[in-house]
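ok so i was messing around last nite and threw this chain in just to see what happens. nothing serious, just curious
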Amino acid sequence: MSAHRSPFPVRWLAAGGAAVVAGIIGVALLLQTGGSACAAPPSTTTKTGKATFYDLAGTSGNCSLEPPADDLYVALGPSQYSEGAACGAYLDVTGPKGKVRVKVFDSCPECAAGHLDLSRTAFKKIGAEIDGIIPIKYKLVKNPPVPAPISVRVKEGASQYWFAARIDHHANLLSSVQVASSGRGFTKAQRTDFNYWIIDSGAGPGPFKIKITDVYGKTSTVSGIKMNPGTVQKTAVRASSASSSSSLSASSPEPATSPKKPAASPSKQPATKASRSAPASAAPPSSPAASAPAALPATASASAAAAPLLESTPTDPAAEAAALDLTAAEPAPNRC
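result:
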């Protein structure tokens, strides 16, 4: 299991005047199997669903990323957030008014698969804000252009004895991160659900060489990463244009634009606070226990069968009828 995290925020969706809380605890492990080049990458086929919107309220999302400069981001439900495996990927989302590209930035604990919770800015590009909920089609983007080269942020509390770093601007979904320093060989880091890659035994004092591999088998290596907790260190490597292997040193580090407060312990991640879209007449209830309908079905077990990342799992016949190719994965690379 990943590191313990602080309680999630409660987001409320009004439907027919009643608040509905929906949770999926399915865990997608497809991308946490060591980054085998022979594993089928996630599907990029078009899927159907619905979208709502929310505001960050001055905080960051569960992916621990700085908000995109264009304010175009999305929060995914547990089965598609995949314990952080979806962080940093991009989706093309089409609604009644057009299409928008959004970065996976946050989790939406009560969102079922196919329910995308967009930033208000992104929602308004494809639908009318007053509607609150709109039908959409969406798909994962392969090799999207990114606004900046790969960056690395070493987490507060990290030392030569405990390594934790966040990777950003990697374009595609990541399958593995490996770290080397001070003459040591590469050590595989473990992903957390708040999008940091951790080596519990540490990786030395640095500087570090970090090799990232995406789900399509493309690797990029950055070097010169310093043990400088809380600082975003930019590199010259652009993931979307990287070849099978590239290595460039990090540029001078710059302070993060939205630095996080140090966690109470290395394994604890700060909670996200956000507000969700809902009709103006519907006020959020004071607590989940007081508002959850008694007839709600039990949530899925955490030990339920794993589903491919970003693949929708219909929860009722109507959703199943509306779904478009929700289970297909891209063919495995021929080199397997």
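not much to say yet. The chain has a mean pLDDT of 72.
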